[in-house]
Amino acid sequence: MATALPPAVATAPEASSPPPTIAAPPAFAVATATEQQILDNVSTDLTVFRFADNPRILVLDFASLHDQGKMLNRVAALTEKAGLPHDRVISDSELGAAISARGDTVETFYYGHDYAAASLARFFDLADREHVELDRQEARLRALLAQEGWFAPGVAAGLITLPAVGSDPKMTAAARAAILRHELSHGEFFSNPLYAEFVRNFWLTILTDAERTTFRGFLAKEEYDPTLEELMFNEMQAYLMFTRDPSFFSPGLAGLTQTRLTELQSRFLAGMPAGWLHEVLASYPAK
Fold first, then answer.
1. pTM of the predicted model, to two decimals?
2. In a 3-state reduction of DSSP, which class is residue 47?
3. For the chain: N or C, fewer Cβ within 10 A?
4. What does the H/E/C string look like for 220-266?
5. Over 90: is that where the pLDDT of 241 sits?
6. Smallest Cα–Cα separation from 245: which of 195, 167, 173, 168?
7. For residue 7, pLDDT beyond 50
8. pLDDT tops 50 at residue 63
9. Helix, strand, or coil here: 75?
10. Tens digits of per-residue pLDDT, 192-213?
11. In angstroms, rounded to a whole number, what is the distance separating the alpha carbons of residues 121 and 125?
């Protein structure tokens, strides 16, 4: 007799390999750039830079002051503008009334913005809790911050803005450079706790009581809220140390002589932490 063959065993067809997962491209391309590269950029919409000397600083380079204002004017109102509530996000109509009362426009409310990651997170948290509808530009900002992970607790980072040359009659190449240097110093303050603590101590121990009072008066005229102490010493370092264009700041505006300002700048340089901003201050010609 012939031997029976064993029954055939059915085999499952080989499973095909799943297609490779392709990560979705980020909503915002963020290029690393030096200060000069940022200045040289010509934006047609919004360009986002990571500052090469401190990657915790994001720079938003706007082609339009209108878009900049629509994105950040309500943040400014919440965090630092005098005469406006700092405990809630105001409505568009309230913001419009406040801008008109000051003789400003959406475009001229601020020429440069600067905020800590925590302040931006607070703005969006308050907007959510109060069911405030975001403008399109504010929604873009939220998407960028989410992409960068800035809504996590404890993020030490700073966001600053820069308008394009020609976006306003005042916005010359020299003005753009002055604004960027001023705002970058704020970015360092927000992202470097060691530097922020140094600035605080300098404000409290090196400036006299009279100088602090006079400087508050200068900032109040610029429509900053003089009751916000951290805002005062943050602006102090940006104006006194890093704003050298006389069309934006001169020592007399803060009740200082040039001799006293030079002395303060020298003492600030001698004590400030090492790093890129120290090198910036050291690079200014002595007066």
1. 0.90
2. strand
3. N
4. HHCCECCCCHHHHHHHHHHHHHHCCCCCCCCHHHHCCCHHHHHHHHH
5. yes
6. 173
7. no
8. yes
9. helix
10. 999 999 999 999 999 999 999 9
11. 6
- Domain extent listing, the chain: 28-191, 193-287
- Residue 141, token pair as written in the block: 């900002």
Tokens 């200014």 sit on residue: 284
Q: How far is the first Cα of the chain from the last one, in angstroms, to the nearest whole number?
A: 115
The total number of residues shown for the chain amounts to 287
CA 59-134-224 angle, 5° bins: 55
C-alpha closest to that of 59 among 40, 84, 33, 96:
33
Whole-number Å distance between alpha carbons of 149 and 103: 37
Residue 213 to residues 77, 203, 207, 233, 250, Cα–Cα distance (Å): 23, 11, 10, 12, 17
Tell me the mean pLDDT in the region 150-172.
95
In eight-state DSSP terms, residue 106 is T
Which letter does DSSP use for residue 163 in this model?
E
As a whole number of angstroms, the distance between CA 115 and CA 183 comes to 10
> Distance between CA 275 and CA 54 in Å, rounded?
9
**Which residues does 275 contact at the CB level (< 8 Å), separation at least 6?**
53, 54, 188, 192, 195
- SS3 (DSSP) at 116: strand
Please give the Cα distance from 241 to 233 (Å, whole number).
Answer: 12
